[in-house]
Amino acid sequence: MKKALITGITGQDGAYLADFLLKKGYKVYGTYRRLSTPNFWRLQYLNIFDKVELLPMDMLDSYSMIEVLKLAQPNELYNLAAQSFVGASFEQAISSTEVTGLGVIRLLEAIRLVSPDTKLYQASSSEMYGDNNYELQDELTELAPSSPYAAAKVLGYNTVKIYRKGYQLFASNGILFNHESPLRGLEFVTRKISNAVAKLKLGLIDKLELGNIYSFRDWGYAPEYVEAMWLVLQKEIPDDYVIATNSTHSVKDFLNLAFECVDLNWNDYVLEKDEFKRPLEVNYLKGDFGKAEKYLGWKPKTEFKELVKIMVESDLKRWKDWQQGIHFPWDAWNYPSEKKLLSRKIQLDH
C-alpha cells in the first residue's frame, strides 16, 4: 500500500486530495497545526475525518517535520501548507514568508536528511506571475510577484528546482491557477460572493462589499486540480506543470452568474470598497495547461458557469439547512462576521 503525507490537509485542496488518494487505496497521513480549535470541518464534510491519520506539524519547526517523516515514511508528500490568502500576506508579510517560503526550504532539508526517496509535490501558484503583460502564462513565463504571498511562493518554487538538480530529489512544482469549490475559505472572493448571495436571497443581509471587481482570473474546479497533483508524482521524471483552464473571467462575471442563480441583480446589492483592494493588484491571469495535457493527460472538465452554480447552490443549501436546525460541518462558525449572524439568530429564537 502506498503512503501519502499531505501538509495542510485541513484546507480545501488538502481535503479533496485526501479523499482522492483514499479512493486510490493510499494510506493517508495529514499534518495540522496545534490550535485551540482545530479546523477539521472539510474532512468531516467529505466523511473522511476518521479515515486519515492526523499528525501535528509546524512549517516553522524543522524538528517536527523530521519526526513526521520518520513516522509516516511516505512514498509521496504533497506540500499544500501555506498562508494562502493573498490579502493577508500584505498585513502579515514576515509570518507569511516564514510559512509559505522558508517552510518549503525546511521541508526540503528534512526530506534530504531523513527521507530522500520520498516524492515531493510543491503547491506553487499563478500569483507568482504577478501583474504581467502576457496573454497566456505557462511554465516558461517570467515570474513577477506582486504580493508577499507570491514572493514567498517564488522562493519555494525556485528552491524546489534547486534541490531537484542539486540533490537529485524527486521534487515537482504544480503551478495551479485559481481553483474553487464549496470548500473554499470565506475570505476568498469567490466563496465570499457565493456565501453572500445565499444570505441575500434568504434576507439575512442586505449588501455585499467587495474590492476590485474588474480583475480577471483563470478559475477551475478544485476536485479536478487535486487529480493533477497526483498525476505529477506518477511521472518517472520530476518536472513543473501549469494547471489551468486556458480561459479567464472577471470578478464581475462571477457576480453576474452568481446572482443569476438566485434571480437577483448584483447591481442592487454590491458596494465597491477601497479597503478590500490590495496595495498591488494582479489584474489578469490566464494559464496554458498544454504541457499538463500533453504529458499528464490532464485537462479541466467543469465550465466556469457550472462552477459558480455549484458554489452558490451549496451555500444556499447550507443556510437553508441552518435555518431548519440541521447540524452539519461548516466553516461559518470560524469567522467573526458569520458567527455574529448565527449567534443573533439563536438568541432571537430563544
What do these coordinates show?
This protein has 350 residues and is α/β, with parallel strands linked by helices. 43% of the residues lie in helices and 14% in strands. The chain folds into two domains: 3-180 and 219-243, Rossmann fold; 189-217 and 248-284 and 304-343, UDP-galactose 4-epimerase, domain 1 (Alpha-Beta Complex). The longest helix is centred in the first third of the chain and has 22 residues, at 93-114. It starts with a strand and ends with a helix. The model has no long low-confidence stretch (mean pLDDT 93).
Strand order of the largest sheet: 3-2-1-4-5-6-11
Structural class: alpha/beta
Number-wise, the strands total: 13
What is the helix tally? 12
Describe the structure using short key phrases.
Rossmann fold, 2 domains, 43% helix, 12 helices, UDP-galactose 4-epimerase, domain 1, 350 residues, alpha/beta, seven-stranded parallel beta sheet
Task: Give the arrangement of secondary structure elements.
Layout: E1 3-7, H1 12-23, E2 27-32, H2 41-45, E3 53-56, H3 62-72, E4 76-79, H4 86-91, H5 93-114, E5 119-125, H6 148-166, E6 171-176, E7 179-180, H7 189-201, E8 208-210, E9 216-217, E10 220-221, H8 222-234, E11 240-243, E12 249-250, H9 251-260, E13 270-272, H10 290-296, H11 304-323, H12 336-349
Parallel strand pairs: 1-2, 1-4, 2-3, 4-5, 5-6, 6-11, 7-10, 8-13
Antiparallel strand pairs: 9-12
Helix pairs in contact: 1-8, 3-5, 5-6, 7-9, 7-11
